[in-house]
Design a protein that fits this description.
single chain; alpha+beta; Transposase Inhibitor Protein From Tn5, Chain A, domain 1; 8-stranded mixed β-sheet; 4-stranded antiparallel β-sheet; 16 helices
Length: 502
Amino acid sequence: MYKRNWIFSGVYIRIVAMSYIRKYKRGNSTYVQIVFKDGRRISKIIHIGTARNQVELDVLLLKAETLQLGEKQMSLFPEKELKPRLQTTGTFSKLLYSLIKSSYQNLQFDKINDYVFQNLVVARIAEPVSKLDSIRVLEELGVNNISKDKIHRSLRKTIRNNYRKTISGLCVQNRNINYINILLYDVTTLYFEIPKEDKLRIPGLSKERRLEPQIVIGLLVDHTGFPLSLQMFQGNTAETKTIVPVLQKFREEYKIKNLTVVADSAMLNQKNIQDIEKNGFNYIIGSRQQKMPFAIEEYLKTNIVPNDLDVVEGVLSKGQRAIYQYSAKRARLDMRNIEKQIQKAEKVIAGTSTVKKSKFVKFNAKNKKLNEALIEKAKSLAGFKGYITNLSLPAERIIKYYHDLWHVEATFRMSKHDLKARPIFHQTEESIEAHLTIVMAALAVSKLMEEKSGLSIRRIVNLLKPMRSAVLISNTDSSTLEVPPHIPQTLSQLIKQLSRGY
């Protein structure tokens, strides 16, 4: 309603223009308009929208009432209590679900054709919890048809149909490993919540000094950290005994020639290197400098102050090269650590430390003193990092490939923290294998989403999870309508990146 004032022959006249909401049907649609009348003449029509069901009609009528009254205009008649025409039945993070599912399909994991397995992978990424609690997570994502029995059947199918082999093959296919054959390898341990031992779950060497039963996991990834193969070993298996079986199995399954593995120095001993060479694999490993390498010794004779990023090469045996690079940044870190070790040694010698041994303490029959020769050697090697390889590639490329090892460490961190692969609650070997298969698939999907967006998977989930769709229900005929979330401009680019194909 609006007012118009006129002055006619000295008489003040007020004409009131009225408005009303009009709805009319045409076919299966209902049109909603606001009609303004100036006296008997229609002066203006605002088309609000077209409804195809009762919920859409209620939404349009509410919008029309808001526009008709305005924020400041008062109604001429007292408002009566009305029962809301629309109510929400719940909200869910459909957007997050669809984007994770899209990346799952980009990797062609849907070829497995297991709806429950797919949703267990999505739930592991959205909120890593137990398999049964995944039902709640999936309901919050808009999936309401997953049950406990369906999960158990899917876990059995995961082992019976060897889903892990299918997933590994699709990962190899997606990353074109036949053409890029530099692979990174590392191991980790996963412990169990229930302290029950068997032939698989056995306490062993733990980097975190845990005493619980554990298993050893060997993970093979490409040069970006994308998972390619995951194998499980008994909890007391030495790390050095896992690498050759993993490489052999990987080569046999995918017929890859000229395979090169990059591993940390702790992963390979001299016997491993001989076994790797005997099986026809190439390698790049970190060098343990237990004594002064001849190449560095000769270099220091002519370079009293080493130059940053200088490279020195030497030959260890037939076909085996040793490459050393000096880094000023690494030298500063090494020197700080050496000084700390010296201070520790001095406390041991003075008897003021509870530690009985120290790297730089020299013991003899009568007393103990600083090992000056060892300290001098450590200082001369400060800043040098060694690499051993049987490849003939330029030294700079060898060093770069080795430095890519941080990708596999990042992938392990993702599995342990973001996807919470541990502690493991499963007890049978089959269910443990199924759990690891879900984790590997979730790793691959998460890495793909990170590559698309440039953000960590936890950051992606935290940003998109609050973007919830709502389901409205009409009190008139109980029909429903799904309302998508409002997407802030700051997230539109992220959603666009995650929506693109691969």
